[in-house]
Specification:
6 strands; Rossmann fold; Na+/H+ antiporter like fold; mainly alpha; six-stranded parallel beta sheet; 2 domains
Length: 571
């Protein structure tokens, strides 16, 4: 049989297969699947026996994942959101970068590397991973909250600073060598880079806001879902590539602004749905590529150096971020979320250390320590986030006040000078009530019907706008993800009449259905599905009725057609 030269296929196939196997094992032992993805990368990396995947190809595939991820973030992050958090994101990110860089520089000097190596090493420890941060926020459904917007805005500022650093490093390397660049030449290089990035942003905010939505609406009017999906990927990848090649910006920054511009269109939700499957697949390859770079020998050859690096990332950065957020007057819960979000490093760190090695500004041990710190911090980050979110959920002011019981007289309005303080989450006192999980397009329609019928109902939701809409409809609201057993236990399901699971994600909906059925075997559970597989999945986990949207539409249309035929045939 001929030996086909297929490094791309081999890298994708083995990367995804091993990521699936180890991700499943990680889930089995109740840790984050991304830990399994990292292990898959180590297995196919150059430091373990057996097959060695193409590292260069893996890095490029991972970059596509970052592009699609940041494009999706931009779809949900408007210019108004970016401006609203600029007052904290800009000084906060710069201050936290300064703290982490100083700490990393001190460690590098202690190891005898010199100040230029210390600068590169410290910068690489200062910037968080886009993939890890956004996935953590999305999994906990807090991406669209104030906490999530601050974290993402902070990340965007970090990316901008790293872009400048990537341009500065070659000039600094030249300046420190014999006959190197002068201070004026370095200043000119920085000014040109800033001007290019500013030009790209201006172009996107002026021209892109007109061209991109028009392209999507024109494509949507063709009626071809294939062309619409292609337009989504073309815009995300095309703008990201143009930003990097024409304006010296990063792929991630270009994709973010492309998504943010498209997010102003009425088609943004549909675009996000089309980008989701490919985005998740390439995000997995990103974690595999990180694992491939890791040399496990550094763990036992330099354990104290690794420990110091991890402490800078997980403790030093987090404490700095927490203190900065609190100093700007934001609540304790917001500071905890932002600090946990940033307690890891990722893709920009790898780019920085690779450039530092190429310029002879950083020793090989520096790259090994950065990679070890990245993998360990990525493994620790979900655990840290879980603890932070559980603590945040118990803070005063996190949960809305309960709605008054049905038929009760409305409570008097609080005095203007008194700031309302919400109680900590407690089990609901409702009896014979309905529970609605998710208050989006479907959940809000159900809630409005329940309100008109005078039914008491409770809603699980953590999107700020949807939470307010549920409150206006008279619902008691528990902010958070109902898939969390501790939160679901607050809903009083043993005393409830019905549970409506309206979230579109089949796995998340399945977790809610399965846990609710275990709490109350007699509960009526109604869920929505987007496919026959999803319908069977939810039915198997205990849903009383699962509604498939397309099937219901078809049945309703045929029912009306048959009624019209019968009316026409009547004498």
């Amino acid at each position: 049989m001929p030996d086909h030269q297929t490094p791309l296929i081999a890298t994708v196939a083995l990367g995804l297969v091993l990521a699936y196997i180890f991700g499943l094992l990680a889930h089995r032992v109740r840790i984050q699947p991304l830990v399994g993805y990292l292990v898959a990368g180590i297995v196919v990396g150059p430091f373990t026996p057996g097959f060695v995947a193409d590292q260069a190809l893996a890095q490029e595939l991972a970059e596509i994942g970052v592009i699609l991820l940041m494009f999706g973030v931009g779809l949900h992050f408007s210019l108004k959101d970016l401006v609203s958090v600029a007052a904290i994101a800009i000084p906060g990110a710069i201050g936290q970068i300064a703290v982490a860089t100083i700490l990393g520089g001190v460690l590098a000097l202690a190891l005898g590397w010199g100040w230029t190596a210390g600068l590169v090493f410290g910068l690489s420890l200062s910037v968080a991973s886009t993939v890890v941060l956004v996935r953590a926020l999305q999994e906990r459904r807090i991406l669209d909250t104030d906490r999530g917007r601050i974290a993402v805005g902070w990340l965007v500022v970090e990316d901008l600073v790293m872009i400048i650093a990537l341009v500065l490093l070659p000039a600094m390397a030249a300046a420190t060598s014999a006959g190197g660049a002068s201070a004026s030449q370095i200043g000119l290089t920085v000014a040109i880079t800033l001007a290019k990035v500013a030009a790209f942003i201006a172009l996107m905010l002026v021209g892109g806001r007109r061209v991109i939505p028009w392209m999507m609406h024109y494509t949507a009017h063709t009626g071809s879902r294939e062309l619409f999906r292609l337009a989504v990927y073309a815009i995300a990848l095309g703008v990201a590539f143009a930003a990097a090649k024409l304006f010296d910006a990063s792929f991630a920054l270009g994709a973010f602004f492309a998504g943010m511009v498209l997010g102003e269109s009425t088609l943004s939700q549909r675009a996000a749905e089309e980008a989701l499957p490919l985005r998740d697949a390439f995000a997995v390859l990103f974690f595999v590529s990180v694992g491939m770079l890791f040399n496990p020998a550094v763990l036992w050859e330099h354990p104290l150096h690794v420990l110091a690096t991890v402490l800078i990332i997980v403790v030093g950065k987090s404490v700095a971020a927490y203190l900065i957020v609190r100093a700007f007057g934001h609540p304790h819960g917001t500071a905890l979320t932002v600090s946990a979000s940033l307690a890891q490093i990722g893709e920009f760190s790898f780019i920085l250390v690779a450039l530092g090695l190429a310029l002879n500004m950083l020793p090989q041990e520096g790259q090994d320590l950065v990679l070890a710190g990245s993998i360990i911090s990525i493994i620790l980050n979900p655990l840290l986030f879980q603890r932070v979110e559980r603590r945040t959920a118990r803070l005063p002011g996190f949960t809305a006040p309960r709605a008054p019981p049905p038929h009760a007289a409305p409570a008097p309005a609080p005095a203007p000078a008194a700031a309302p303080t919400a109680p900590t989450p407690l089990p609901t006192s409702m009896i014979d009530h309905d529970v609605v999980v998710g208050y989006g397009r479907v959940g809000s329609l159900i809630g409005a019907q329940l309100a008109r019928a005078g039914r008491p109902f409770l809603v699980f939701e953590d999107n700020d706008g949807a939470v307010e809409a549920a409150r206006r409809d008279g619902a008691e609201v528990i902010p958070g993800n109902a898939a969390d057993p501790e939160l679901l236990a607050l809903a009083g399901l043993t005393q409830a009449r019905r549970l409506f699971v309206t979230v579109p994600e089949a796995f998340e909906a399945g977790q809610v259905v399965e846990q609710a059925r275990a709490i109350n075997p007699d509960l009526t559970i109604m869920a929505r599905a987007h496919s026959d597989e999803g319908l069977r999945h939810l039915d198997r986990l205990g849903a009383t009725l699962t509604v498939l949207g397309e099937r219901e539409i078809a049945e309703r249309m045929v029912e009306r057609a048959m009624a019209d035929d019968a009316a026409a045939a009547a004498p």
